[in-house]
Protein backbone atom coordinates (compact mmCIF):
# COMPACT_ATOMS: atom_id res chain seq x y z
CA UNK A 1 0.00 0.00 0.00
CA UNK A 2 1.25 3.45 -0.89
CA UNK A 3 0.01 6.81 0.36
CA UNK A 4 0.52 10.10 -1.43
CA UNK A 5 1.34 12.86 1.07
CA UNK A 6 1.00 16.30 -0.49
CA UNK A 7 1.57 19.65 1.14
CA UNK A 8 1.60 23.35 0.48
CA UNK A 9 3.68 25.56 2.74
CA UNK A 10 4.39 29.24 3.27
CA UNK A 11 7.00 29.38 6.03
CA UNK A 12 7.85 25.68 6.30
CA UNK A 13 5.77 24.41 9.23
CA UNK A 14 3.26 22.61 7.02
CA UNK A 15 6.15 20.91 5.19
CA UNK A 16 7.52 19.82 8.57
CA UNK A 17 4.11 18.44 9.51
CA UNK A 18 3.83 16.59 6.18
CA UNK A 19 7.33 15.12 6.59
CA UNK A 20 6.44 13.97 10.10
CA UNK A 21 3.18 12.43 8.84
CA UNK A 22 5.04 10.65 6.03
CA UNK A 23 7.55 9.21 8.51
CA UNK A 24 4.71 8.12 10.79
CA UNK A 25 2.91 6.40 7.90
CA UNK A 26 6.14 4.60 6.95
CA UNK A 27 6.57 3.43 10.53
CA UNK A 28 3.05 1.98 10.29
CA UNK A 29 4.01 -0.05 7.23
CA UNK A 30 2.79 2.23 4.45
CA UNK A 31 4.81 3.15 1.41
CA UNK A 32 4.86 6.93 1.01
CA UNK A 33 5.39 9.44 -1.77
CA UNK A 34 5.89 12.95 -0.32
CA UNK A 35 5.59 16.00 -2.57
CA UNK A 36 4.96 19.73 -2.60
CA UNK A 37 1.61 20.24 -4.33
CA UNK A 38 3.02 23.25 -6.18
CA UNK A 39 5.76 21.21 -7.85
CA UNK A 40 4.85 19.91 -11.29
CA UNK A 41 5.26 16.23 -11.97
CA UNK A 42 4.11 14.67 -8.71
CA UNK A 43 2.39 11.31 -9.07
CA UNK A 44 -1.25 11.07 -10.10
CA UNK A 45 -3.54 10.62 -7.06
CA UNK A 46 -5.52 7.75 -8.67
CA UNK A 47 -2.47 5.50 -8.45
CA UNK A 48 -2.31 5.49 -4.65
CA UNK A 49 -4.13 3.65 -1.90
CA UNK A 50 -4.71 6.86 0.07
CA UNK A 51 -4.00 10.58 -0.07
CA UNK A 52 -3.05 12.89 2.81
CA UNK A 53 -3.11 16.60 2.09
CA UNK A 54 -1.53 19.15 4.46
CA UNK A 55 -2.32 22.82 3.90
CA UNK A 56 -1.80 26.06 5.82
CA UNK A 57 -4.32 28.80 6.37
CA UNK A 58 -2.99 32.29 5.79
CA UNK A 59 -5.18 35.38 5.87
CA UNK A 60 -8.25 33.19 6.26
CA UNK A 61 -7.76 30.91 3.26
CA UNK A 62 -5.88 27.95 1.86
CA UNK A 63 -3.35 28.35 -0.97
CA UNK A 64 -4.84 28.49 -4.47
CA UNK A 65 -2.77 25.43 -5.41
CA UNK A 66 -4.67 23.34 -2.83
CA UNK A 67 -8.05 24.55 -4.05
CA UNK A 68 -7.16 23.85 -7.69
CA UNK A 69 -5.73 20.41 -6.85
CA UNK A 70 -8.97 19.37 -5.13
CA UNK A 71 -11.06 20.64 -8.04
CA UNK A 72 -8.86 18.91 -10.64
CA UNK A 73 -8.50 15.57 -8.85
CA UNK A 74 -11.74 15.15 -6.87
CA UNK A 75 -12.88 12.13 -8.94
CA UNK A 76 -9.62 10.22 -8.34
CA UNK A 77 -9.55 11.27 -4.68
CA UNK A 78 -13.10 10.00 -4.15
CA UNK A 79 -11.89 6.47 -4.92
CA UNK A 80 -9.43 6.24 -2.00
CA UNK A 81 -9.31 7.17 1.68
CA UNK A 82 -8.36 10.83 2.07
CA UNK A 83 -7.30 12.91 5.02
CA UNK A 84 -6.64 16.60 5.45
CA UNK A 85 -4.40 18.40 7.93
CA UNK A 86 -5.42 22.04 8.24
CA UNK A 87 -2.58 24.10 9.73
CA UNK A 88 -3.18 27.44 11.47
CA UNK A 89 -2.23 29.28 14.62
CA UNK A 90 -5.88 30.29 15.08
CA UNK A 91 -6.74 26.76 16.20
CA UNK A 92 -4.90 27.39 19.47
CA UNK A 93 -6.34 30.87 20.01
CA UNK A 94 -7.85 31.74 23.38
CA UNK A 95 -10.71 33.37 21.47
CA UNK A 96 -13.52 30.85 20.84
CA UNK A 97 -14.65 32.74 17.72
CA UNK A 98 -11.16 32.53 16.19
CA UNK A 99 -11.02 28.78 16.88
CA UNK A 100 -14.52 28.25 15.47
CA UNK A 101 -13.62 30.15 12.32
CA UNK A 102 -10.49 28.00 11.87
CA UNK A 103 -12.50 24.83 12.46
CA UNK A 104 -14.99 25.90 9.78
CA UNK A 105 -12.48 26.56 7.02
CA UNK A 106 -12.25 22.94 5.79
CA UNK A 107 -16.04 22.97 5.25
CA UNK A 108 -15.69 26.17 3.21
CA UNK A 109 -12.94 24.47 1.19
CA UNK A 110 -15.25 21.51 0.62
CA UNK A 111 -18.03 23.80 -0.59
CA UNK A 112 -15.65 25.65 -2.92
CA UNK A 113 -14.12 22.50 -4.43
CA UNK A 114 -16.98 20.00 -4.22
CA UNK A 115 -14.72 17.47 -2.52
CA UNK A 116 -15.28 16.02 0.94
CA UNK A 117 -12.26 14.76 2.91
CA UNK A 118 -12.83 11.55 4.87
CA UNK A 119 -10.86 12.84 7.87
CA UNK A 120 -9.80 16.33 8.98
CA UNK A 121 -7.24 17.24 11.64
CA UNK A 122 -6.62 20.77 12.87
CA UNK A 123 -2.95 21.33 13.67
CA UNK A 124 -1.50 24.43 15.25
CA UNK A 125 1.33 25.90 13.26
CA UNK A 126 4.27 27.98 14.41
CA UNK A 127 5.34 31.55 14.86
CA UNK A 128 8.25 31.77 12.44
CA UNK A 129 9.68 35.05 13.69
CA UNK A 130 13.04 34.30 12.05
CA UNK A 131 11.32 33.94 8.66
CA UNK A 132 9.23 37.12 8.81
CA UNK A 133 10.21 40.51 7.49
CA UNK A 134 10.33 43.34 10.02
CA UNK A 135 6.70 44.44 9.60
CA UNK A 136 5.23 40.93 9.73
CA UNK A 137 7.43 40.11 12.73
CA UNK A 138 6.08 43.13 14.62
CA UNK A 139 2.48 42.37 13.62
CA UNK A 140 2.77 38.71 14.65
CA UNK A 141 4.46 39.74 17.91
CA UNK A 142 1.54 42.07 18.66
CA UNK A 143 -0.99 39.31 17.89
CA UNK A 144 0.95 36.84 20.05
CA UNK A 145 1.08 39.34 22.91
CA UNK A 146 -2.70 39.88 22.73
CA UNK A 147 -3.12 36.09 23.03
CA UNK A 148 -0.68 35.83 25.92
CA UNK A 149 1.70 33.94 23.65
CA UNK A 150 5.45 34.17 23.14
CA UNK A 151 6.86 37.54 22.12
CA UNK A 152 10.55 36.62 21.89
CA UNK A 153 11.27 37.42 18.25
CA UNK A 154 14.83 36.10 18.41
CA UNK A 155 13.56 32.55 17.76
CA UNK A 156 10.66 30.60 16.29
CA UNK A 157 7.88 29.12 18.44
CA UNK A 158 6.17 25.86 17.48
CA UNK A 159 2.66 24.92 18.66
CA UNK A 160 2.02 21.68 16.76
CA UNK A 161 0.73 18.83 18.95
CA UNK A 162 2.76 15.97 17.50
CA UNK A 163 1.05 13.30 19.63
CA UNK A 164 -2.41 14.34 18.41
CA UNK A 165 -1.10 14.34 14.84
CA UNK A 166 0.33 10.84 15.31
CA UNK A 167 -3.06 9.57 16.55
CA UNK A 168 -4.77 11.11 13.52
CA UNK A 169 -2.21 9.57 11.15
CA UNK A 170 -2.71 6.19 12.83
CA UNK A 171 -6.47 6.40 12.23
CA UNK A 172 -5.88 7.36 8.61
CA UNK A 173 -3.42 4.46 8.15
CA UNK A 174 -6.14 2.15 9.49
CA UNK A 175 -8.58 3.57 6.89
CA UNK A 176 -6.08 2.89 4.11
CA UNK A 177 -5.42 -0.67 5.30
CA UNK A 178 -9.16 -1.39 5.65
CA UNK A 179 -9.90 -0.05 2.16
CA UNK A 180 -7.09 -2.17 0.69
CA UNK A 181 -8.60 -5.32 2.20
CA UNK A 182 -12.07 -4.54 0.83
From TrEMBL:
<feature type="domain" description="Flavodoxin">
    <location>
        <begin position="4"/>
        <end position="153"/>
    </location>
</feature>
<dbReference type="InterPro" id="IPR052200">
    <property type="entry name" value="Protoporphyrinogen_IX_DH"/>
</dbReference>
<dbReference type="Pfam" id="PF12724">
    <property type="entry name" value="Flavodoxin_5"/>
</dbReference>
<dbReference type="InterPro" id="IPR026816">
    <property type="entry name" value="Flavodoxin_dom"/>
</dbReference>
<dbReference type="InterPro" id="IPR029039">
    <property type="entry name" value="Flavoprotein-like_sf"/>
</dbReference>
<protein>
    <submittedName>
        <fullName>Protoporphyrinogen oxidase</fullName>
    </submittedName>
</protein>
